């Protein structure tokens, strides 16, 4: 079995483990079980017709006396590119718009309040090629671009907050950015959040295309809760998650594009650790499939030039502040993950574990200020 | 099957999954496979006679041209308390010394260079009772106590660095601390590292007994590498791991005492995330068994008073900077985990992933300094 054929860890466990052991294994691996969410039959049918996986789960919180539950539904969408990477650019973008359009329609039927797409969802993840053309032509204005307009229409139509991560072109300064556009359910653009940490690894030195983001750790107050977007490589940086949380984020989305050989064993760890450490929900989204490029390219690993860099393994999931998580979407198929969560859980877990109160942040602020000096002397004891 | 009977996640997977799927499941769950380490037959026999689990694994690194490999072996020891909690204190401590003595002897036979014991290893984890007596009588001087002397003898005898986490009494100020004593393989005490983050959760408000540590993020230069000790609850705080790493730690030990209901699903996540995020090795150690106390106590959860607070689930493991990890020790048995690692792997992974260079720490230092002000205004965008 090749790594890109293996469909899902959860399916494998459920097919083979005896029931009593499965309960223990799932408890240790995934924490308190997330309930399955009943989704409308018409949504299930539509997903099947449109050939994507549809899964629904629910995180519960305790009933409080003074606050009503704050149940909301998020949708995570993972998908293949639709047309070959050498098709005309406008056709590629339009095809992706259509695909997302039909998936978001199902999300709406499922009552999703906030949906998030994968990183640079309108294009192949072509940054491995190091070619500027034609890939930079996929870049659009965050405020005025067709993709933002498209999402604004969806947002209004379905009363849904949309997080739309694109390759952004800022005409004013002639700069490109890796940016998530956040659109309110009113259809208005709420703002944007740029990728804070840029990889220089394997096939990707993305600073060939765009540099570290300058939007800091902005949090967006939506009708359905306070959200933030930590794009892709930022998930490896605990301080990045932390700072979104310190600015009040209740849900942090992590739209990503990452392949197996590089990162798969880290995938279930990092977003989930962030949910635990910061008393919030995190949503990790990865694209699926293998993308082929016409020009060959090398990967700085001594190997021969090739036309693709591996299989995007999907496996999108949601993690909760109590350490539990949903199963992942498929490693191979397009999918929509619908997750209902009571946002009251964040404060309940925070009141229980108290990481924010036992964190000694003032002391870390002092220590970090020293550590970043070029003449910092580490505290090392020798015999 | 009750949670305290379930022996091991890894055993369950290995017993039931077909070979081809097992390979994929293990790759996703544990990363690149750790090789089994051949251990001397006499060690295997001794472990069997002394009724503890003995497992050995090895993390490889690439061969470099300018640096020879830096292969070292660490030992992680998890164990039950030996005598009942109401036995005379000196007897309890002596029995624990004997048990550790016979386990360390096997570690020496296995070529272990650095061994670390579990949190407050000389005593039951009695802090749930909130009784000061007799538990504070287990506290000893870090410099002059019998347990430190005992460890110094072992260290000299076996040429082994010993990390010995105890309840420390500092006579000078009349204070107690939760402290790891670090003893060089010469037998000299290198120093001590106090628990930085103190839980106030469930059965444990440990600040009844000791407060937040004042030893900062000290790193100890040993003959076998630079080590640090992040005690128990500090594993929930990413900044704590981070700061040990910024001070140069190559291996961070996490001696712990934690029970299933509270933390088990977080256990495989946090130390491993720290190894990934900080390009270092982390070693998570938890005690095993259920400890019964004569006086009943309540747990602040509305339930009836009881005499124990649950099953310590062991499951000690080592995580590597490439995201891989060893299988865990048993959830139910005493055990010694021997892990060989080439410390060159840290720099190799750091050169590959470059989190320290893409981390933007200077900007976080500024941001954190603002965040900790009482009048901090979070960056929240509204419509």
Q: What radius of gyration of chain A results from the CA coordinates? A: 21 Å
Shape of chain A: globular
The DSSP helix count of chain A reads 10
How many strands in all of chain A?
Answer: 18
Mean pLDDT of chain A: 96
CATH homologous group name of chain A: Carbon-nitrogen hydrolase
Which characteristics define this entry?
homodimer, 383 residues, Nitrilase/N-carbamoyl-D-aminoacid amidohydrolase, eight-stranded mixed β-sheet, five-stranded mixed β-sheet, 18 strands, 23% strand
Task: Explain what this protein looks like in three dimensions.
Chains A, B: Pathway: Amino-acid biosynthesis; beta-alanine biosynthesis. Chains A, B: Keywords: Cytoplasm, Hydrolase, Phosphoprotein. Chains A, B: Belongs to the carbon-nitrogen hydrolase superfamily. BUP family. Chains A, B: It comes from Oreochromis aureus (Israeli tilapia). Chains A, B: Homodimer, homotetramer, homooctamer; can also form higher homooligomers. Two copies of one chain form a homodimer. The first copy, chain A, contains ten helices and 18 strands. Chain A has helices at 9-16, 19-30, 41-49, 89-109, 146-158, 238-246, 260-263, 267-278, 344-353, 361-371, and strands at residues 35-36, 53-59, 71-78, 114-116, 161-170, 175-183, 189-194, 200-201, 204-205, 219-222, 225-229, 251-256, 281-286, 288-290, 311-313, 317-319, 335-342, 380-381. The longest helix of chain A has 21 residues, at 89-109. With 383 residues, the first copy, chain A, is an alpha/beta fold. In chain A, the strands form four sheets. In chain A, strands 1-2-17-3-4-5-6-7 form an eight-stranded mixed β-sheet, sandwiched between helices. A five-stranded mixed β-sheet of chain A has the order 10-11-12-13-16, covered by helices on one side. Helices cover 28% and strands 23% of the residues of chain A. In chain A, helix 3 runs antiparallel to helix 4, helix 4 packs parallel to helix 5 (146-158) and helix 6 packs parallel to helix 8 (267-278). Chain A has one domain (37-371): Carbon-nitrogen hydrolase (Nitrilase/N-carbamoyl-D-aminoacid amidohydrolase). Chain A is globular. Chains A and B meet through helix 1, helix 2, strand 8, strand 10 and helix 6 of A and helix 1, helix 2, strand 8, strand 10 and helix 6 of B.
């Amino acid at each position: 079995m090749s790594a890109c054929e293996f469909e899902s860890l959860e399916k494998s466990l459920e097919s083979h483990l005896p029931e009593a052991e499965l309960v223990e294994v799932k408890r240790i691996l995934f924490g308190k079980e997330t309930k399955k969410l009943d989704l409308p039959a018409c949504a299930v049918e539509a997903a099947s017709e449109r050939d994507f996986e549809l899964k629904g789960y629910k995180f519960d919180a305790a009933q409080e006396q003074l606050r009503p539950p704050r149940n909301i539904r998020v949708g995570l969408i993972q998908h293949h590119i639709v047309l070959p990477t050498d098709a005309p650019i406008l056709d590629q973008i339009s095809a992706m718009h259509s695909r997302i359009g039909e998936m978001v329609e199902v999300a709406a039927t499922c009552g999703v309040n906030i949906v998030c797409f994968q990183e640079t969802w309108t294009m192949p993840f072509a940054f491995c090629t190091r070619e500027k053309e034609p890939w930079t032509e996929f870049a659009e204005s965050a405020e005025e671009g067709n993709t933002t307009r498209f999402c604004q229409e969806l947002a209004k139509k379905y009363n849904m907050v949309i997080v739309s991560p694109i390759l952004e072109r800022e005409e004013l300064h002639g700069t490109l950015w890796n940016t998530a556009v956040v659109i309110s359910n009113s259809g208005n653009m709420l703002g944007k959040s740029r990728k804070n940490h840029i990889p220089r690894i394997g096939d990707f030195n993305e600073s060939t295309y765009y540099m570290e983001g300058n939007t800091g750790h902005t949090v967006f107050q939506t009708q359905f809760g306070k959200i933030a977007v930590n794009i892709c490589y930022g998930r490896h940086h605990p301080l990045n998650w932390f700072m979104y949380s310190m600015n009040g984020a209740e849900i942090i989305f992590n739209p990503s594009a990452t392949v197996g050989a590089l990162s798969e064993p880290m995938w279930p760890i990092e977003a989930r650790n962030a949910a635990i450490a910061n008393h919030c929900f995190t949503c990790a989204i990865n694209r699926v499939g293998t993308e082929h490029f016409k020009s060959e390219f090398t990967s700085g690993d001594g190997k021969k030039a090739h036309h693709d860099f591996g299989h995007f393994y999907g496996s999108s999931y949601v993690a909760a502040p109590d350490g539990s998580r949903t199963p992942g979407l498929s490693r191979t198929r397009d999918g929509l993950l619908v997750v209902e969560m009571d946002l009251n859980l964040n404060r309940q877990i925070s009141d229980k574990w108290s990481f924010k109160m036992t964190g000694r942040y003032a002391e870390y602020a002092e220590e970090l200020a020293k550590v970043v000096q070029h003449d910092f002397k580490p505290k090392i004891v020798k015999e």
